Amino acid sequence: MAPERGFPFTEEELHRAAGEVTDALLADLPAPGDCAHSFSQDFEKAMAPLLRRQRLRQKRRERLRRAACVLLALLLGGGVWLASDQQARAGFLAWVRESLENAVYLISGHRAEDVLPETAPSCRFTWLPEGYRLGDNGFPEADHHRFTAALTAEDGRDAFFSCEINRADWSLSLDYDESYQVRTVSVGEESGELYLCPDGSRPTSLVWQAEDGGLVLCLTGYLSGEEILAVARGVVLER
Known about the structure:
Elements: H1 11-28, H2 41-76, E1 83-84, E2 95-100, E3 103-108, E4 122-125, E5 132-138, E6 146-153, E7 159-165, E8 171-175, E9 181-187, E10 190-196, E11 204-210, E12 215-221, H3 225-233, E13 235-238
Antiparallel strand pairs: 1-2, 2-3, 3-8, 4-13, 5-6, 6-7, 7-12, 9-10, 10-11, 11-12
């Protein structure tokens, strides 16, 4: 291509020159093995909360992937044993609970024809533990069937809340193993299940229902049983 009027170089010449400059700059860079660097203690301390938060997100994504695989097996194959606590919790609208590996999987006990709310409400928090503040919150889907909120902590150990329509396809996975204590608790006039890790090494979770079982609410995080109940009892549903 001929150079444009008033411009002394062709496009091909510019591409060739750019490649030569790039090669020359790269040749002047030190080898990767010579680039060892020790970060200051102040920098590493400042980065620690971000790194912890990233590790928590990675673990949460991995748990959700495992839950999806297990739930698909439950729905398609029926080869995993299912247990229902309806008799033990007569006042608590049923969901099916399955324990597997290091998690518990909850599947809605509602039927597709049950009458349910058309949308989930917005939720307001009247109390949060010291060191926590309300982070991102709102409706992640356009049909407003689920409201979510992040409760961000100064130490990076965030808590997470959801309020979702209890549709027939509703499901949830939570941290769980044999060391957890599972308790039936009251949240206002509603019943719920508290999954408490006694030593605090894994998240505590609280799942409860509202609006005659039409909504399922979940709060999970590194909180004590008393703190997570206090947060839940301070949740206000706003339509």
